[in-house]
Amino acid sequence: MSETVERHEFGAEVGRLLDLVVHALYSDREIFLRELVANAADAMDRRRFEALTASGLALPPDAKVRIVPDKAARTLTLSDAGIGMSKEDLGQNLGTIARSGTRAFSQTLAEAKPDERPSLIGQFGVGFYSAFMVADRVTVTSRRAGSDEAWTWASDGGGSYTLERAERAEPGTDIVLHLKEDADEYLEPYRLDHVVRKWADFITVPIAIVQEGREESANQGTALWRKAKSEISEEQYTEFYRQVGMNFDKPWATLHWRAEGALEFSALLFVPGMKPFQALDNERESKVRLHVRRMFITDEAGLLPSWLRFVQGVVDTEDLPLNVSREMLQATPALAKIRRAVTGRVLSELASRAKEGESYATFWENFGPILKEGIYEDHERRAEIAPLLRFRSSAVEGWTSLPDYVSRMKDGQEAIYYLVADDADALAKSPQLEGFRARGIEVLLLSDHVDAFWPEALARFEDKPLRSVTQGGVDLSKFAGDEAGGEAPAGIETLVAALKAALSGEVSDVRATDRLVDSAVVLSASGSGPDLQMQRLLRRAGRASSGLAILEINPRHPLIRSLAEGPEGDVASAAGTLLDLARIQDGDSPRDPVAFARTVAAALAAGKPA
Questions:
Q1: Residues annotated as binding site?
Q2: Which residues contact 411 (CB under 8 A, 6 or more apart)?
Q3: What is the mean pLDDT of each successive set of 10 residues along the chain, which is 610 residues long?
Q4: Which residues contact 212 (CB under 8 A, 6 or more apart)?
Q5: Is 198 within the bounds of a domain?
Q6: Are residues 203 and 131 in the same domain?
Q7: What's the total number of domains in the chain?
Q8: Whole-structure pTM over 0.85, yes or no?
Q9: Alpha-carbon dihedral of residues 424, 428, 433, 439, nearest 10 degrees?
Q10: Binding-site annotation: residue ranges for ATP
């Protein structure tokens, strides 16, 4: 070894942790490029900051981070015009893990004026070592700004590194990665461009990739969310929306604000104007992008709850602590506060836009079912979400809300009534509504997949209980109606008893009802258990429901009159058919479709009820 080359052992902590950094700390190899670019950007920010108080340190006007792939030599070089490192800096910063110049330098910022503080990205001093994920040897040649002396640090990632004098015409740093055999992709300019645009597209330092001697810009360098709203046109918002969300439409809502105070962050969020091509039911996590000082960190930070997962955009903070890999966020109070603030801001926007009628209806048709999930999942936000919900109704055209429903309730009406089924078109024709319509009582019609769950979670709105019309025990007798068919026939109690005996084990009860007008029968659930829709979902999931349904009969219907006044033998043969009719009306299949079809056919041929 030349006398000018000094060999040093890594600090003990490096020997223990370097293998962990290379093989376990990062889940994606391409992160190495983000880390090295972040370090280069920090170095240039540091030089710019120190130039405020020291002459001769100003950045060159064309300063940038240059990335140079060399396929022949199998090297990847990153060069910057930053503050650079002295011999001592190289030994301290690269020879001891978690002792980066960035972290040490941040301590000098305490006395600096806020508007003079550079936006430093690195904090933990381990990002540099990610280079060994793709390289089996790394050399770093650096010259400290204000010094004429340059040094080269080199290591193969083992237990030692070397330092030797070098030459560099200008202050700054060159990092040369001698790539491993399985890292050929990082010699391709298009791959490097993709990684830079993914992770560092919006940092202010220019980044260029050198290809065949030509420099091609690899980042925008402008974080739109950091600009004042007055400086941004609608076209720029739309362009960014399409870029960040891979959309082709225009946003339905744009939310751009900066939170200041104890916790500072910038946010630029969008509510899409149309449903995405990929169903949001398949991906239940929010994909709002988290940036720290413009550098992309992750889109899996859960910045919004799953019931707002249709919202897209960016949140950028200066203050959020990260763990050493920057890929897994610490569960800090700061992150929780950002989540609460962002969620609250989105809900405020929706509450404001909910007054717009037709425009809000467009949003609701796109994302209403997802927003409803918040009632079921988020106890803390239920009261804020409930007024935002919209429904079809048995009484009015178009969409209506819970506040509107309450304003139309009849005198003496104590509950908000709703009906849930799979088929939206069939809901309006359901026999379950007949008695309510006859008495002018409004029923909300729910047909989304989540509608079987959230009403029970909400339970009440403006002190009015929510109640499914399929749950038995609804007393409509106090409301005057347009019941047809005259008085109930004699023998109805005997008929009820005979039906109950014939259907023993298939229904929990049989009873006469006053909530039917045109239909002969209807099913209901007990007043304390799940409603009929929930029971159907449980059966489809292979889980037994909590009880059997109740068969309710309309004593004024001609079929029921005929059975009540006819021979007892007709009751036994008709009982199963009545139950199947009630099941079909509620969207279920007959217990035995073939047998039901034969029974109906025989009855039609005989010219009498089945």
A1: 35, 39, 80, 85, 93, 100-101, 123-128, 173, 326
A2: none
A3: 75 63 72 91 92 89 95 97 94 69 52 56 65 94 95 90 95 97 96 94 94 91 92 95 89 96 92 80 83 88 94 90 52 84 97 94 96 95 97 94 96 93 85 92 94 92 93 76 63 91 92 90 81 77 72 92 81 89 88 89 74
A4: none
A5: yes
A6: yes
A7: 4
A8: no
A9: 140
A10: 35, 39, 80, 85, 93, 100-101, 123-128, 173, 326
